[in-house]
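User: I've been trying to design a sequence by hand for this structure and keep getting stuck. Would you show me what you'd pick, starting by listing the structure so we're on the same page?

Assistant: Good idea, let's start from the same input. This is the structure you sent:
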């Protein structure tokens, strides 16, 4: 299948071939391979080839990720932020075009508002390049704007975009491009014509009201049906109440059947408590269906028979309860043994035996609890509806409390996993109990609350409820983002106020309807009298209100009427759900129409809109692309929304070109109900909509069990969401910008989702799941689900996931708002990220979120220092408009990211400065403001143009046909790196120190050879034409033989090292070694470090410098101490003559002689040597010197010494490793010597050691031995 997918992935890129895999499910590697093929063809046509990507795309069999890296891809991302982002990024786009960068962009990744301007560019490229004159004439548009897709044509296109007032060089057009002027005209894209009486405003209101009412009709009919169920159960259970032994026994028999089913499944689940026993464990939804729901059924039936229990004596109640519990656990034990099979062991047998045994006392407690509840709540004359409310919770609490006693008594035989399962199930039961009480309490007590607060209180509470709801719906996001604790508290509480109020109002209206029905079709006098009694008792504050209110409810419950109303609600809900499209009657269509009119209509040269609506059928494009012949070029063309295609049928085998940057439209697949524990905060994943493929990729999840497999599912856009009509570019961009939705990724909360859903604040979109499972193999072909109700409820209650037949997409910013996620996935070497999100406090939330997700999901580290952007002066001007950082894909694959932030800068044009003075939040005005004025539009556009121009103006890479991308980003890195205060304050002092040291080099003849070592080109400066490389190498390796010359060179190099350490500390080189302003120092240090004399000096004196500085020199300058060898210098009796010949110093000879000469033992002595080699020429070593010795007696290490001043440099461990190597890998043994005797020996020779150091040494030897054994 992988080979088939790989072949199918080329289908759109090879014209004239038949693609038999049009409906295949593709992996991301297939998607990337196809995209690279398209990018390669475009590069060749525009003469922007670079990297190793040939014009036919990646070689067959090559890893697409590696091919993407070698291709040196340039990605451009536009962040979310509504029209603010679109307008700011328009200015950035113009600046990029003016620098000739746009044609080098391979990918355009957009989110939300960034997608507005991204779709504008996509449509503009299509209508300027992907159309012939014949197509233009057929469409009735002028042909003067058409361009050829080649280097000259795209340069002309860039010049047109880049035009700005004041251009005088004559290269570009005489005035601003018509497509940009159109954007100015429709900058207020939702309602272009302002005013309360404009058709645009009222059309917007009418669409919202219509769609909201239709969706609320579906939800209301369903709500009526749900509310009628308890009112129907109440009289039915009251009629079937167990007031005789026969009725009680019938209820017991029915519940016994249900109990058998529960016990069987309980035993099955407890038998599979571990993965290795009893088969596959069941997940929570199945446990709820197979145990929780049947338990609820018994609880509901208890409303009819629980009152009968109160008539029993206590002993009978306890006995019956015990028998029920014993029966339950005995049957569960039989089920567990049946499912465990051969895995049944003594442990399981003991567990179940104790559980059955302790069922007797826990069962007695269960029976007594039910008896107490029966006496307390189920007295004669109690309204059956109240019994229905109380019975399931009463049974649940009796089960839970008895279970606590049961577990406590049998606790010693419980494993932690059993108690965890039982506790988790108890928690589910408790949640269900609370939900049951809340729902049925509203159904039966809601009308009483309304009756109780009649008059002024009713008006006040109703007004407060309506006001709270409206504020939370209209201003919810702004209120939450405003000040602090009170606003967040309001947004947390307001949705629940709405839910409670809605429930009370619905229950009161339902009771009013039942009351009117009972008056019309029943005993009107009795019904009216019952209500009168309730209201009079409420006014008087006396009387048996509970009995009177129950009597009124009972009088209004006519069974046949409720059944008829329930049937009507079910039928109407089904019929309306079939006709009301969940996507068409959301706000997505209205939103998409207005985006299309503004941003896609801008590229239609002779636009002919409908005179009444202002819309045009020819504005929108289909999201899919088809290979078409446009002149001599085979091009991927977006058909118009109505299906009209440009060009002709392609022939031959030419590569197919996509005219503009390949557009990646980022949306969020909502996973609010997903089981992946790692996604509990994000609640969403990335879902891609693009011209060739649509789909998503999610990592596997161990927390979801069988449902947690990795998903890598992409479908061809030509088929995805294509029935009955194709998905359009406008709909895709509207989905990417669906900021206001019930499910909003990491912004989602259950209560707020219900609030937004009920009021139809729904900009998101339901699409078929590209991931094929048993239940959704073909749903991905559909534009949306057939039945509105189920998906409305999933949306309202936050039940969206990745496994259902349809998935819910919303704003890409609900997952990642910057737009770099998909670019990092494609391993773009260069990324320009434009952030125009609302961030008035410069907290960089979107950037931090993107960095975090890229690290977590891809293992890619993005290092970006934005402190200079956040720094602002007294006039609130930011310190920098951008930051440049690294993208570390791997150790040898490090890309560059240019992060542009909407910010205030000194030097902005006066009109922008004036707008900023009048609007303090600029350039971070609220995203809820989607109604831009002319001055607002121009201020944001000009700011983007100014900032991007300032940023790019720092580069020496000029706009040309062969723009050097590497040079461009190197220049940007140097110019926009964060300024260092350490450099500014210490540069002068360090420069003086350098000058003083170099004065010695300039004036001393003995140091003259160092000039040739520090600067290998020295001989060339003298006029010598050095061809033989060995001459320069000899100069570099020279260590003088003359002692005076050696002394001066040694101390001079020590002065250099001291200067290096001073610079290391003063300039914070530990963290700022990459700072462009420090590059000169690092280059000078590297020159010195290549000198043989300098390396010899470093090896001798490195121990006198700080540890962190030594590590820095080794890591950044390759200044190593050299190689360590253990050289055998003596074997046998350690005579004084033998020790003298071994090359050991006098101190070392004295130590060995003192310990071993008198004993006459044979030993082996090793001299530990440091061999200093130069990286260019390793042999012979520059210098060799001993730094210690080791004495072995057989395999026992009896003496080991490293010179005191070298111990802290790691030479002790390296010496042990060399010793093991010299002994052919044999491990070192340590004898059990007397510690006090050792300390006495060392003290005689003034060695610095103690008991702790001896213990550390023993641990070091053990570590070296283990390391060798593992190797």
């Amino acid at each position: 299948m992988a080979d088939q997918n790989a072949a199918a992935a080329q289908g759109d890129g090879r014209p004239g071939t038949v693609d038999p895999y049009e409906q295949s499910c593709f992996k991301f590697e297939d998607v990337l391979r196809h995209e690279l093929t398209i990018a390669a063809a475009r590069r060749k046509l525009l003469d922007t080839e670079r990297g190793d990507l040939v014009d036919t795309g990646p070689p067959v069999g090559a890893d697409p990720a590696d091919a993407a890296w070698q291709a040196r891809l340039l990605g451009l991302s536009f962040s979310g932020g509504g029209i603010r982002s679109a307008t700011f990024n328009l200015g950035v786009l113009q600046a990029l075009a003016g620098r000739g960068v746009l044609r080098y962009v391979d990918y355009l990744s957009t989110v939300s508002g960034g997608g507005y301007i991204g779709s504008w560019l996509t449509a503009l490229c299509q209508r300027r390049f992907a159309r012939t004159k014949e197509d233009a004439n057929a469409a009735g548009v002028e042909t003067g704007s058409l361009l050829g897709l080649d280097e000259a044509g795209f340069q002309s296109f860039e010049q047109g975009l880049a035009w700005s007032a004041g251009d005088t060089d004559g290269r570009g057009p005489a005035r601003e491009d018509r497509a940009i002027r159109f954007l100015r005209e429709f900058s207020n894209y939702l309602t272009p014509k302002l005013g309360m009486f404009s058709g645009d405003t009222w059309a917007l209101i009418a669409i919202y009201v219509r769609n909201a009412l239709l969706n609320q009709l579906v939800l209301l009919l369903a709500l009526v049906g749900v509310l009628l169920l308890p009112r129907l159960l109440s009289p039915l259970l009251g009629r079937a109440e167990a007031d005789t032994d026969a009725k009680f026994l019938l209820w017991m028999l029915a519940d016994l059947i249900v109990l058998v089913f529960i016990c069987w499944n309980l035993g099955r689940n407890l038998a599979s408590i571990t993965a290795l026993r009893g088969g596959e464990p069941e997940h929570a939804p199945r446990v709820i269906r197979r145990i929780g729901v049947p338990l609820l059924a018994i609880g509901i039936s208890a409303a009819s028979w629980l009152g009968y229990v109160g008539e029993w004596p206590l002993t009978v109640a306890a006995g019956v309860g015990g028998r029920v519990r014993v029966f339950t656990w005995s049957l569960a034990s039989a089920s567990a043994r049946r499912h465990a099979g051969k895995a049944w062991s003594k442990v399981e047998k003991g567990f179940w035996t104790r559980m059955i045994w302790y069922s007797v006392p826990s069962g007695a407690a269960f029976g007594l609890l039910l008896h107490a509840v029966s006496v307390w709540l189920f007295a004669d004359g109690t309204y059956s509806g109240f019994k229905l409310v109380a019975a399931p919770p009463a049974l649940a609490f009796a089960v839970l409390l008895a279970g606590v006693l049961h577990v406590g008594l049998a606790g010693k035989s419980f494993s932690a996993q059993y108690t965890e399962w039982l506790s988790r199930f108890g928690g589910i039961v408790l949640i269900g109990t609370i939900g049951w009480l809340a729902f049925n309490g509203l159904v039966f007590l809601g009308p009483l609350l309304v009756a109780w607060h009649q008059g002024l209180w009713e008006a006040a509470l109703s007004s407060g409820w309506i006001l709270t709801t409206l504020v939370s719906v209209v201003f919810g996001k702004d209120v939450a983002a405003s000040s602090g604790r009170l606003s967040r508290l309001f947004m947390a509480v307001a949705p629940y106020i709405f839910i409670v109020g809605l429930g009370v109002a619905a229950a009161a209206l339902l009771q009013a309807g039942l009351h009117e029905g009972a008056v019309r079709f029943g005993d009107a006098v009795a019904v009216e009298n019952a209500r009168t009694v309730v209201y009079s008792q409420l006014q008087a504050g006396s009387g048996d209100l509970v009995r009177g209110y129950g009597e009124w409810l009972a009088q209004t419950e006519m069974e046949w009427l409720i059944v008829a109303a329930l049937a009507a609600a079910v039928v109407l809900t089904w019929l309306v759900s079939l006709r009301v499209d969940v996507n068409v009657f959301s706000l997505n269509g209205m939103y998409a129409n207005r985006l299309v009119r503004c941003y896609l209509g801008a590229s239609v040269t002779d636009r002919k809109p409908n005179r009444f609506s202002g819309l045009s059928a020819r504005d929108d494009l289909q999201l899919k692309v088809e290979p078409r012949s446009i002149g001599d070029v085979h091009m991927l063309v977006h058909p118009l929304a109505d299906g009209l295609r440009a060009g002709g049928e392609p022939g031959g085998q030419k590569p197919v070109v996509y005219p503009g940057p390949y557009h990646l439209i980022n949306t969020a697949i909502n996973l609010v109900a997903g089981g992946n524990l790692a996604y509990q905060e994000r609640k969403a994943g990335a879902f891609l909509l693009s011209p060739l493929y649509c789909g998503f990729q999610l990592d596997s999840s161990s927390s979801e069990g069988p449902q947690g497999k990795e998903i890598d599912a992409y479908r061809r856009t030509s088929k995805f969401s294509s029935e009955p009509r194709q998905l359009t570019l406008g709909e895709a961009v509207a989905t990417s910008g669906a900021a206001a939705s019930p499910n909003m990724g990491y912004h989602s909360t259950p209560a707020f989702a219900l609030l937004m859903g009920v009021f139809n604040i729904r900009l998101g979109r339901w699409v078929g799941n590209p991931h094929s499972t048993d239940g959704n193999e073909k749903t991905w072909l559909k534009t949306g689900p057939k039945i509105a109700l189920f998906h409305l409820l999933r949306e309202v209650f936050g039940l969206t996931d990745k496994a259902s037949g349809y998935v819910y997409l919303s704003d890409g910013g609900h997952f990642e708002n910057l737009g770099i996620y998909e670019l990092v996935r494609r391993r773009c070497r260069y990324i320009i990220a434009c952030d125009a999100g609302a961030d008035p406090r410069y907290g960089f939330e979107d950037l931090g979120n993107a960095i975090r997700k890229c690290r977590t999901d891809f293992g890619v580290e993005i290092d970006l220092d934005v402190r200079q952007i956040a720094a602002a002066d007294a006039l609130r001007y930011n310190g920098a408009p951008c930051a440049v950082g690294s993208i570390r894909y791997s150790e040898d694959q490090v890309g560059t990211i240019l992060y542009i932030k909407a910010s205030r800068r000194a030097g902005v044009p006066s009109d922008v400065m004036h707008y900023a003075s009048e609007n303090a939040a600029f350039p971070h005005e609220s995203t809820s403001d989607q109604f831009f004025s002319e001055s607002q539009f121009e201020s944001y556009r000009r700011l983007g143009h100014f900032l991007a121009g300032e940023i790019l103006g720092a580069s020496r890479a000029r706009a040309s046909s062969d723009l050097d991308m590497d040079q461009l980003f190197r220049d940007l890195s140097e110019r926009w790196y964060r300024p260092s205060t350490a450099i500014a304050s210490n540069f002068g002092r360090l420069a003086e120190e350098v000058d003083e040291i170099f004065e010695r080099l300039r004036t001393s003849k003995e140091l003259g050879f160092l000039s040739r070592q520090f600067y290998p080109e020295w001989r060339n400066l003298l006029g010598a034409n050095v061809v033989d490389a060995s001459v320069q190498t000899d100069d570099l390796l020279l260590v003088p033989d003359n002692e005076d010359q050696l002394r001066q060179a040694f101390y001079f190099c020590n002065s250099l090292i001291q200067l290096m350490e001073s610079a290391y500390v003063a300039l914070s080189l530990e963290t700022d070694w990459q700072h462009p302003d420090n590059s000169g120092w690092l280059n000078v240090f590297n020159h010195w470090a290549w000198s043989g004399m300098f390396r010899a000096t470093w090896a001798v004196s490195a121990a006198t410098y700080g540890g962190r500085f030594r590590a820095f020199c080794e890591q950044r300058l390759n200044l190593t101490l050299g190689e360590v060898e253990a050289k055998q210098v003596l074997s046998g009796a350690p005579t004084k003559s033998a020790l003298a010949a071994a090359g050991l110093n006098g101190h070392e000879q004295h130590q060995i002689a003192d310990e071993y000469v008198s004993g006459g033992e044979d030993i082996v002595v090793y001299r530990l040597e440091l061999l200093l080699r130069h990286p260019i020429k390793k042999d012979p070593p520059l210098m060799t010197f001993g730094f210690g010795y080791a004495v072995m007696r057989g395999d026992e290490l009896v003496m080991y010494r490293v010179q005191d001043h070298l111990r802290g440099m790691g030479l002790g461990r390296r010496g042990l490793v060399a010793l093991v190597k010299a002994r052919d890998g044999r491990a070192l043994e340590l004898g059990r010597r007397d510690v006090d005797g050792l300390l006495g020996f060392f003290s005689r020779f003034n060695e610095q050691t103690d008991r702790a150091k001896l213990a550390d040494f023993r641990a070091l030897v053990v570590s070296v031995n283990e390391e060798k054994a593992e190797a």
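That's my pick for every position. To get oriented when you compare it with your attempt: The chain has 46 helices and 20 strands. The chain has a mean pLDDT of 83.
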